Amino acid sequence: MGISKLKLRFRDILNQEGGNFAMMAGILVPVVFVAGSLAIDTTNALSMKTQLQNAADSAALATTTQLAEGTITEAEAKDYATAFFNGQVAEATRNFDAFSVVPTVTITQTGTGKKTVWNVEVAAVGSQNSSALARIAGKDSLDVTISATSQSARDASNPISMMLVLDHSGSMGWASGRTTQETRPRYCGWGWYRYQCGTETYDVDVPKIEVLKEAVGKLVNHIVEADPDDQYARIGAVGYNNRTVYSDKFNITWDKPQVTAFANGLSANGGTYSVDAMKWAYEQVTGVGEVNAHYSKNGSKDPSKFIVFMTDGKNETGSPSGDAYADRMTKEHCKSAKDAGTTIFAVAFQAPPEGQSLLKGCASGNSFYYDAQSADELTKAFEAIGEEAVKLTTRLTN
Q1: pLDDT value for 383
Q2: Contact partners, residue 43, CB within 8 Å, separation at least 6
């Protein structure tokens, strides 16, 4: 076969294929349009579902938080959740064709008082118009259903490990500014002849160490109240002055009142050196043994970790360079603790500027630093820390 005949044969084949293509195109074009329409509908449905789910999650979380904090009442909660949800999906009204949604809010609670657990469920059915081809096929709307449930609970849902780092240096024996009254015998007579002739009442200064003991007791009581069965909260303590010895350390325990007893046994003496105490506290709350202790009792592999660091003074080593080294090393241990997920509360009790600066550098933020200039402010600071540690926490449960 010559070259010219091959060309003619090839042209005939092309002409035949062109006809086939035209026929196939006539069949496939409507299919492609339908498939494209379905793809658009699927995308719109997924987008609507995502927006509605995010709105429901946010509304449920916000409502349980408000209920837990007592900002709103149970009677106000449904309206609050509905308004919050509608605000979150307002933009969807502009994004979708004939968009509509109806949220349903269900609120239940278990327990009473500070042990109240709130459950908030926000469910919704969203709808928008289908694409034109889908409507021709009889599918007028796209409907999706979502649900979000949030629960608030005290530390039973948030196991904690806490270490108290307590200054018991000599300055903690100084007057706190608080006084108490003591009654003593009164003696009458003269010379060698004296006899008791009643009693007298005196105002007596309360040492700072005694105020600290009271403050520790208040903090521990908050946590005991939230975990009366010793299932979720563990506390330990370390006292420090110019050294930290074995007797200054009290390992983290489930038996929280023992921490109060340990603090009550501290006496004010010596200088101030916080490095070793902070290092030991950091190792205690972040150690593998602490995770194992929680896991074996409450199943948690990641308990919330806290350190409460308190001083009324500043590091004193006998030289400016030594003092600077002690501050730097203490801050490094604080940083290591924070990098490991530990929240550090820092409390200055009538401390000088150098001590305040150290504590601010260790605290997990301005809201975690307390400057107590009086005995009452110290006890209130420790109470606030105890409440914060066992505060009502909110989480999504589905």
Answers
A1: 92
A2: none
Token output for 281: 């506290």
Taking the C-alpha atoms of residue 220 and residue 239, their distance in angstroms, rounded to an integer, is 16
* Residue bearing the bigger pLDDT, 86 or 130: 86
Q: Encoding tokens for residue 246?
A: 């074995």
Going by C-alpha positions, the residue among 124, 104, 110 that lies closest to residue 54 is 124
Tell me the pLDDT tens digit for each residue of 200-253. Answer: 998 889 999 999 999 999 999 989 988 888 988 999 999 999 999 999 999 999
Q: Is-contact 262 253, C-beta < 8 A?
A: no
As a CATH number, domain 160-180+207-393 is 3.40.50.410
pTM over 0.70: no
- Report helix angle 375-389 to 208-226, nearest 10: 20
Nearest CA-CA partner of 267 in 349, 371, 181, 166 = 166
Kindly list the distances between the CA atom of residue 132 and the CA atoms of 25, 41, 44, 82, in Å, as whole numbers in the listed order: 22, 10, 13, 32
Domain spans of the chain? 3-153, 160-180+207-393
- Angle of helix 257-264 versus helix 208-226 axis, rounded to 10: 180
Select the more confidently predicted residue: 70 or 349.
349
pLDDT band at 10, cuts 50/70/90?
very low
Q: Region 272-298: what's the mean pLDDT? A: 95
Q: Is 127:100 a contact under the CB 8 Å cutoff?
A: yes
CA distances from 38 to 130, 132, 133, 140 (A): 9, 10, 8, 13
Taking a C-beta distance cutoff of 8 angstroms, is the pair 163, 252 a contact? yes
